[in-house]
């Protein structure tokens, strides 16, 4: 008898004070019991002496998120393929984190961009992003993946929705390659 191997990744969120963003409504999930919810929409459910009606946008996201890994989403003939990065994060996971913790036009920083999932998610959700990577092959892959997935020849140029910067840091010297030609706009976000 072989036990199924499950992987768990812990995500911890810290804030310095109570002035933080958490968009609960942006990450709501569909209700699991559709029959019960259909009934509740009409008459409500009596809970602790109060009548409760379901939120039309779904239930609040719980503390445990069940999201399939990238390896298992891309199986070929039942086998998990070798991925270009050793720990690719699911786009669904990163999108949920970005939706919950930022608003459109905000800046997302990923110091370890890996396969570029954060850049893709940020751009899709109209967030600005700054991503960096120490490992040159991952840097090149992340940059190319972001351009390919967003179907734009140079998706890092400033647009009305969002812009992005990719940087490669070598261990001996810092070599910055700003693919975004309008990198000086970073100053505008500091206001």
What do you see in this structure?
The chain is α/β, with parallel strands linked by helices and 191 residues long. It is built from 6 helices and 5 strands, in the order αββααβαβαβα. Helix 3 packs across helix 4.
Question: What's a concise summary of this model?
Answer:
With 191 residues, the protein is α/β, with parallel strands linked by helices. The chain is 27% helix and 11% strand.
What key phrases describe this protein's structure?
191 residues, three-stranded parallel beta sheet, 6 helices, disordered C terminus
Mean residue pLDDT: 77
Please state the structural category.
Answer: alpha/beta
What spatial order of strands do you see in the largest sheet? 3-4-5
Total helices: the number is 6
Determine the N-to-C terminus distance. Answer: 59 Å
Radius of gyration: 20 Å
| Residue runs with pLDDT of under 50 for 5 or more positions | 155-160, 170-191
Order of helices and strands: HEEHHEHEHEH
Kindly state the percentage of residues in helix: 25-40%
Strand content: 5-15%
Find the count of extended strands (DSSP E, 2+ residues). Answer: 5
Q: Given the C-alpha coordinates, what overall shape results?
A: globular
Task: Summarize the main sheet.
Answer: 3 strands, parallel
